Amino acid sequence: MPTETDNRLGTYLKDRRTRLDPAALGFSAARRRTSGLRREEVAQRSNISPTWYTWLEQGRGGAPSAEVLNRIASALMLTDIEREHLFLLGLGRPPEVRYKASEGVTPRLQRVLDALEVSPALVKTATWDIVAWNRAAAVVLTDYGKLPEGERNILRLIFGNPRIRDKQYDWDSVARFVVGAFRVDAARAGAISEVRQLVDELCRISPEFEALWQDNDVHVHGEGLKRLNHPILGSIALEYSAFAVDGRPDLGMIVYNPVTTSDADRIRSLVNPRPAST
After folding, report:
1. Whole-model pTM?
2. What is the C-alpha to C-alpha distance for residues 126 and 145, in angstroms, rounded to an integer?
3. If we measure between CA atoms, which residue out of 97, 81, 98 comes closest to residue 89?
4. Which residues, 6+ apart, have CB-to-CB distance to 256 below 8 Å?
């Protein structure tokens, strides 16, 4: 029989079930030698054989299926990160992504954005809706606060807003990259069905989007250089980096850093304009 060190899945399962309150889940709490649920109670809640579950904890049940692990995760009331850890232990891979619509960002994450004085920064969902941004993003990229919530989508702006299109240094390259990166993000988040309405809408209003979508190109939104033709700042260059938001697979953060000190100073002049002299 595997040792506790070898049987990490069994050790984890046992630890999680001992943390649950039997009475809260409809089981009698009387005459228990240890805290938490019994093995047969976890098996009952998972709708699997008590013998099979016992073997699983003992490390002799073989590799469980994803369906069984999902049932056990539900029975043990695991959080998303706990469920992911269960799959890594049981199958050596994370579970298939289950897309959840974003509920916005925390005040702490917003403060991170606001701390970047001259670096435009924003947070987008897997469907590329903008849900948070800082002052630099508002003055350099787009003042998202002045847009209706439904229009705060990067693809809608790129393909449906002439002013945004005119600001792009090379719109054709930007459009191709955006569509390819969007396709990857939606697939990673398991949100293909959720973006279908947006894709159909953009195909109707933009032949260019329809052609790019049918090309099936994919791109990674990691890091690179973005050039803008800003109506006030003129030509400006920004280095961008994309980051995952830990614990929030539905969100991604993009930070644009000015390439030169001159670009930074010009952005600062818009972010913090000097009061007019009297």
Report:
1. 0.71
2. 20
3. 81
4. 119, 120, 121, 137, 140, 141, 226, 238, 239, 240
